Structure formats: structure tokens, C-alpha cells
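Before relying on records like the one below, remember that each one covers exactly one chain. Contacts with other chains, cofactors or solvent are not represented anywhere in the record.
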Amino acid sequence: MPIQHLSVSDGPDRIAEILERDGGVIVDRVVPREQLDAVHAEMKPYLEATPTGPDRFTGKNTTRVGGLIARSPAAREVITHPLILGGVKKVLSKATNFQLHLTQIIAIGPGEPAQAVHRDQWAFDFFPFPRGYEVQCNTLWAMTDFTAENGATRLVPGSHRAEDKLEFAEGDTEPAEMEAGSALLYTGSLYHGGGANRSDAVRMGLNITYVVGWLRQEENQYLSVPQEIARDLPDDLLRLMGYAQGAYALGYVDDLRDPLEVLRGGQGHKGFGSLESAQERLARKDA
């Protein structure tokens, strides 16, 4: 099954529809490639200072650098892109809230073999989530053109509905080929893996991932972004980072204080979340 491509005019409903059907979709030319070039320029010192991975899974010819909110102001607009967040919100709509899971540049160097095909939601200690209940939605933005030759991420379309802990070979996958500035979206349950880089250039992608608010984040945003930086960030970005309650009674500070108000230095609202919303969700059969 080929990977479907959409345009920005298709909107978040169409993105969510294809993700539900296939588990992955590419939205072409979401931002100008120059916008991602700006992210690269800000992150270049960290990329140059970071060693490649220690094992085959992380990639011995692959560099992974996180902490983008603190290190790259240009990345913040990508993380909060309204079209992508709109699609993510629909995919994760069974949860009360969703949050940022990780921010990372993945630079696959020449000679890197294909990564083992896996599900990203295995990060949650291999917990067997119910089939069809998505807890994670990933985006991979092409900072360079993605081709089958240079290590484009490879998907097994439709495998988000398959059994857990299956094994797939590279030949079972489809390469997510796309131009720089495009974005690949895929669910945490979709089987996928980084492709082999058989070219002589680095394939660089910006990995921004979102997860339901009641699961632990892969990248600890509270320590990745120092408070002196966080206090100057917009409220919407801070709440996406986790300065918000993840459900009716998750994420408050000490005496039921709102975490965003605490960060700002005020006393803020005290209490759990919306009781009415919680009762409504309790009554829903699909909650």
C-alpha cells in the first residue's frame, strides 16, 4: 500500500481520516524549506557537538539532538503549527488532553543501515494498548529531501491495526519520500523504521511527537527547558509542553494549583479540572 500524500488545503479532518485508515500520511510543503533551514542553523552547534548513537537501534552513524524549545526559537513555530496540531488533536481526541512528547533532530549519516522496524509506543514499557486506541501521534518534518536512497523513514501502512510485537523486514515497508518542508505524520502504533542511507549525504529530519496527557513524556520538558526560558514562552506552548492538567485530577501542584500559574509566580486557580467534563467522559462508552 503506497503512502498517501495530502496538501495543506486538505485540512486536519482529512489528515485524521487517513491516519485512522493507514496509520501514516504525508502533507506536502507545509512550510518553506527555509523555515527548517533556520532551525538547522540554530541547532548546528549542538549537532556538531553530539556524538552518534551508541547502538544499532539509535544508529552508530546517526545523530539525535533534542531540547529544541530551549535551543531553537525557530522550532517553536513548527511545534505549534496549527494544521498539524489540528490533525493531532483529532487523532488523540479520546483523551482529555494531549501534550508534547519529544523534540528531536534525527540526522542519518551515509552508510547507516536500516533501523529495526518497531512501534514508537513500545517506549511505554511495551504496554499492550487496546487496538484502535491511539495514545501517540508523531510528526517527522523533512529538513532535507527524503528519498529511498538517503534513508527516508519507512512505514508499513495499515500496520497500526496489526497484532503487537510483530517482525517486519525492510522489504515489507514503503519509503516516506517527500520534499524538504513536508511533514510525515504517523501514529504510535504504526510499524516503521529509519531507512538505510545509501547516499553520500546526511538525511535530516525534525521529529516532533505528541502524546495523550496522562502518559509520561519521552523528553522531560521541565528540565529540557529551564524555567528562566519557560517563563517567557507563550501560554499555548507552555500548556503543550505539559504545564497543564492532563485530565480531571492529573498534573496539579501541591494544594491543587494550576502549574502554569505556579510557573508565572502566582497563586492561580485551585482545584481539579472540569467535573462536568469528567462525568461526561465517564458516561461515554468510548472513553
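The chain has a mean pLDDT of 94.
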